[in-house]
Amino acid sequence: MIDSGFLNIALPKGRLGEKVYAMLEKAGYPCPEVLGDSRKLIFENPDAGVRYFWVKPSDVAIYVERGAADLGVAGKDILLEYEPDVYELTDLHTGVCRMAVAAKKGFKDDPEKTLRVATKFSHIARGYYAGKGRDIDIIHLNGSIEIAPILGLSDVIMDIVETGTTLRENDLEVIEEVLPISARLIANKAGYRFKYEAVKELARMLENN
Ligand code: PRP
After folding, report:
1. Which of 140, 166, 170, 181 has the most ligand 1 atoms within 8 A of CB, as the residue to mutate?
2. How far is the CA of 57 from the centre of ligand 1 (A)?
3. Which of the pair, 2 or 121, is modelled with greater confidence?
4. Which of 66, 65, 114, 76 is nearest to 98 (CA)?
5. What is the rounded distance in angstroms from the CA atom of residue 30 to the CA atom of residue 22?
């Protein structure tokens, strides 16, 4: 079982995690070693009562759902795709981007044909097109989704758009906006009860920063 003396926090490896760590540091939960050059993945600062782990962004919700972390930071895209059984505490207003459908410039949808959709977000895509009553064939990919329509693997993609650079550089364009996305602070349900004061205080400090 995890040490109850600490708040265990799963951070998504990469740019978003670094931004969120900076927010946590400013909010009074520093652990400067986190940003060091080592290959270490777990860091703790007993004075601030925190232990941070770097994990793959799409795995954060798994650590939190199963209680290996009390808290974590996950994009709304991941929460909608995997629907983990966690509490969503706060919109951190960072990692802001959008989920969109994109296609090659000039693409014309033929409603008579099944639409081939390449995506990492199969569950979100199924729900979105079911809501429109549109027949689709999901092609589940794990990355570099933009290549799919270029090579004729799919008609469209459903993916995250942040600056729009990846689409532009691959001659694709947004044809439908699906949803706005941002990073959320999430909590394990049992941890939320057992460490209520500490969790609420951290969420409050983050919101006030
Ligand atoms: C994400 C997303 C797009 C890109 C969008 O990919 O899947 O490819 O970022 O960003 P932009 O609008 O600023 O260009 P990520 O970097 O996570 O890599 P991936 O190919 O593994 O999905």
Report:
1. 166
2. 13
3. 121
4. 76
5. 8
Q: What's the distance, CA 134 to chain centroid?
A: 26
pTM: 0.92
Q: State how far the Cα of 87 lies from the Cα of 84, in Å rounded to an integer.
A: 9
Closest residue to atom 21 of ligand 1, CA basis: 143
Q: Whose CA is nearest to atom 10 of ligand 1?
A: 162
Atom of ligand 1 nearest to the CA of 166: 14
Alpha carbon distance 73, 75 (integer Å): 7
pLDDT(1) > 50: no
- Residue 37, pLDDT > 90, answer no
- Token pair 């232990």 is at which residue? 51
Is residue 182 scored above 90 in pLDDT? Answer: yes
Q: What is the pLDDT of the chain when averaged over all its residues? A: 95
Share of the chain above pLDDT 90, in %: 93
